[in-house]
Amino acid sequence: MYEEIKKKPKVQLKRLVEFLECPNSTEEENCGVVDEILKMCNFENLKNLEVNTNGQFSTGETYNLFFRKGEIGDWKNYFTRKKSDKLNHTIEEKFQGSGLKFSYV
Questions:
Q1: CB 13 within 8 A of CB 24
Q2: Phi-psi region of 51 (alpha: psi -120 to 50; beta: other; left: phi over 0)
Q3: Could you tell me the residue ranges of all domains in the chain?
Q4: Structure confidence at residue 94 (pLDDT)
Q5: Are 97 and 27 in contact (CB under 8 A)?
Q6: Helix 9-19 crosses helix 33-40 at what angle (to 10 degrees)?
Q7: 91 contacts: CB under 8 Å, gap ≥ 6
Q8: CA-to-CA distance for 91 and 37, rounded, in angstroms?
Q9: How far apart are CA 35 and CA 10, in angstroms?
Q10: To the nearest 10°, the Cα dihedral for 17, 12, 19, 41?
Q11: Do the beta carbons of residue 12 and residue 21 sit within 8 Å?
Q12: FRET partner for 8 with CA separation of 20 to 30 A, picked from 34, 40, 57, 85?
């Protein structure tokens, strides 16, 4: 979950590389590989890549539409209560039985 990544990025990166079955070695961790990965995947860095500032889809929408503020809860500035309720219902329906827990604050 994005909230968990924002709170503890190193922990979540470790979980990801273990899931992908390519964990970092102790040597890589000691050499700063984890920090470098986090730096490269930082929201601001990704947002400012040339492809994301200048690229566009064949329909004309620009790639930068995928990047707003990178803040938890910012979606509330874009959804009405009705849209939010509909999305929450759809999420619960689609992810039923997955074990994922969602917080609608």
A1: no
A2: alpha
A3: 2-70, 73-105
A4: 92
A5: no
A6: 100
A7: 102
A8: 30
A9: 8
A10: -50
A11: no
A12: 85
Polymer length of the chain? 105
* Intervals of the chain under pLDDT 50: none
Encoded tokens for 80? 């009405």
Instruction: Tell me the three state secondary structure of residue 20.
Output: coil
* The two structure tokens encoding residue 1: 């979950």
**Which two three-digit tokens encode residue 33?**
């590989």
CA 73 to chain centre: 13
CB burial of residue 17 (10 Å; 0-12, 13-18, 19+): middle
The pTM of this model reads 0.66
The helix (H) or strand (E) run that includes residue 94 is: helix 81-94
**Phi and psi at residue 35, to the nearest 5°:** -60, -40
Amino acid in position 8: K
Contact in structure between 7 and 1 (CB atoms under 8 Å): no
